[in-house]
UniProtKB/TrEMBL annotation, chain A:
Gene3D superfamilies reported for this sequence: lambda repressor-like DNA-binding domains (1.10.260.40)
Keyword vocabulary terms for this entry: DNA-binding
Protein name: Transcriptional regulator
Domain HTH cro/C1-type: 6-60
InterPro entries: Cro/C1-type_HTH, Lambda_DNA-bd_dom_sf
Organism whose genome encodes this protein: Planococcus halotolerans
Automatic annotation (TrEMBL), chain B:
Record-annotated membrane-spanning stretches: 12-32, 52-71, 113-131, 137-155
The protein, known as: Uncharacterized protein
Keywords, alphabetical: Membrane, Transmembrane, Transmembrane helix
Provenance organism: Planococcus halotolerans
């Protein structure tokens, strides 16, 4: 299962779901689905999110059980 | 999003289906005599007074609802020029596909509807074959299946849209 810290990073940049959605050209609902882990974004959207949140995509998304990110 | 016309579209369709069921009840087999020969072509229709009133009221309601629906559709199209909905489109307008997240929840809802249809239609056909049902009950069965499909789609999409938080 894909885990993420989109919510954490978004809060760090003081962005709302709508703000982030506008930056990566998706709806607020899609950002909410990703944050809840309900939906795994495509590689393109993952890269866009990482760019918007100024982090490496590996820091934003990782597979469950990945020790480095789950610390 | 919660006020998106496409989210409410299944509710409109359900309302039309209910009215159609009422119209079907009041208009059940009205043709009492049909003549078609070399001398004459005629048809005689009879509607009971009580059913006539029901028919009149339901037709007025149906066309009023249709007018409101078309106005809402026009309003939505004016506000969303890039995602216009056509009233006569073959593709169901309730599909939410503006991005991959919305496409995902639409796919989940459509999968549930497909599963439902896969079971509902053969069950309906079996019931219609086995039981001595009148034409009206078979029409009710078809309308119930259609109503169920919109109900499943609506609640599935609503569940996802309602759960999301800012």
């Amino acid at each position: 299962m894909l885990k993420n810290r989109v919510k954490e990073m978004r809060a760090r940049h003081s962005l709302t779901q709508s703000d982030l959605g506008k930056q990566v050209d998706v709806t607020r609902q899609t950002i909410a689905f990703i944050e809840k882990g309900e939906f795994s974004p495509s590689i393109t959207l993952s890269l866009k999110l990482a760019k918007a949140l100024q982090v490496d995509v590996n820091e934003l998304f990782w597979l469950e059980g990945d020790e480095y990110n789950e610390k | 999003m919660k006020n998106d016309f496409r989210l409410k579209y299944p509710l409109w369709m359900m309302a039309f289906i209910v009215l159609l069921a009422i119209i079907a009840y009041s208009l059940d087999s009205p043709v009492v005599e049909y003549v078609n020969n070399s001398n004459e072509t005629s048809m005689e229709m009879t509607i009971e007074p009580a059913k006539g009133i029901v028919l009149l009221v339901s037709l007025v309601l149906y066309f009023t609802l249709l007018a409101i629906f078309l106005l809402q559709l026009k309003k939505y199209n004016r506000q969303n020029p890039t995602q216009k909905i056509s009233a006569i489109s073959i593709r169901p307008p309730e599909y939410l596909e503006q991005d991959e997240g919305m496409t995902y929840i639409t796919r989940k809802a459509v999968q549930k509807v497909y599963t439902y249809i896969t079971w509902a239609l053969p069950i309906l056909a079996t019931i219609a074959i086995i039981l001595p049902l009148s034409k009206l009950y078979i029409i009710y069965g078809i309308l119930a299946v259609a109503l169920g499909q919109y109900l499943i789609f609506y609640f599935e999409i609503r569940k996802h849209v309602k759960e999301e938080t800012e």
